[in-house]
Amino acid sequence: MQRRTLIHTAALAAAAFSALVSLPATAQGTWPTGKPITYMVPFAAGGTTDTLARLIGQQLGTALGTTVVVENKGGAAGSIGSEAAARSAPDGYTLLGGTVSSHAINVSLYPKLGYDPIKSFSPVTLIGTNPVVLVVAANSPYKTLKDVLAGAKGKQGGLSSASAGTGSSQHLAVELLAYKSGVKFTHIPYKGSGPAIQDVISGQVDMMFDTTVVAAPHIQSGKLRAIAVTSPQRLASMPDVPTVAESGVADLKDFQVQSWQAIFVPAGTPTPVVTRLHDEIRKILAQPDMQTRLKGFGMEPADLNTTQIAAFQKAEVEKWAQVIKAANIKVD
Predict the structure, then answer these.
(1) How far apart are CA 258 and CA 102, in angstroms?
(2) Closest to 124 in 3D by CA, of 37, 24, 62
(3) Rounded distance between C-alpha atoms, residue 135 and residue 142, angstroms
């Protein structure tokens, strides 16, 4: 009798313990439990990718009933952190904040990249895109894109164009312009957008492509003149600035340059986990305050499914490979 009672008591205790253990899993649906999620940012703290990771990570942790820890691992235009994420276990506990640099451009720039931007990852969410704008000094003689192209043709070596560094989106934007128009430009690399755009303002450099986040304040203050934006449509924040495609130059009718922010997981992560992450992050990004924040960063929010993101990324990789090869751009 006593033995039977002990067995019954032990069974009840085991059942109670099992119920306790299963509570978090029940609360979180099918999400894996037991340890925090690492959101890898392959750039230094304080940038757009890092800011987005912290905004999204906090809410994502609440939605999944766990903790999301942001880890910054910068270097080589996002390559170092991306390689580390690619080597992580595909178990749903590692997210990566990817960009046009880390997941479209670098594969054609770095001869010994430690990951494949497509094969090493599965896309989860395209957060948004950020077009760039071609600017000149306020007192520049160039007022339209046709003026810029004519000026470049009439100057030995072409007009000078500043950028935040070799291989940056600003650099590749002018190389794409040269590639499609057949007009030469002289690239002047700087160590960041700040000093580059100041030399455009002062007239030491003829022009520059830069993100709307960086250029907009100088355009609004009257220090810079916006020539054209590289988005498919005009921007709501700059309705009077035409797109490059609107320039009337036939070879530029499909010209687009977009910096973008996305979230990836290591290849092999189970499909249900990827789907859950996509759905939860999509809900977060759809919130009105988050939409306002994204637009405040100069970003155009995106809403693509994972198949569409994969197609978008593949097209970006192919486009920039073409440009980099044509321009013979090399990074040591």
Answers:
(1) 14
(2) 37
(3) 10
Task: State the Cα–Cα distance between residues 10 and 281, nearest whole angstrom.
Answer: 42
Provide the strand spans (E) within the chain.
37-41, 68-72, 94-99, 121-137, 159-163, 185-189, 207-211, 224-229, 258-266, 300-301
177: left (phi over 0), alpha (psi -120 to 50) or beta: alpha
CB of 25 closer than 8 Å to CB of 80: no
- Closest listed residue to residue 319, CA positions, set 100, 134, 119, 111: 100
Q: pLDDT of 153-207, one tens digit each?
A: 999 999 999 988 888 888 889 999 999 999 999 999 887 788 899 999 999 999 9
**In 3D, which of 116, 38, 61, 59 has the Cα closest to residue 83?**
116
Query: Where do we find the tokens 């750039």?
Result: 43
Q: Are strands 37-41 and 94-99 parallel, antiparallel or unpaired?
A: parallel
Model pLDDT for residues 201-218, shown as the tens digit of each residue: 999 999 999 988 788 889
CA dihedral 291, 164, 159, 107 (to 10 degrees): -90
SS in 3 state form for 156-176?
A: CCCEEEEECCCCCHHHHHHHH
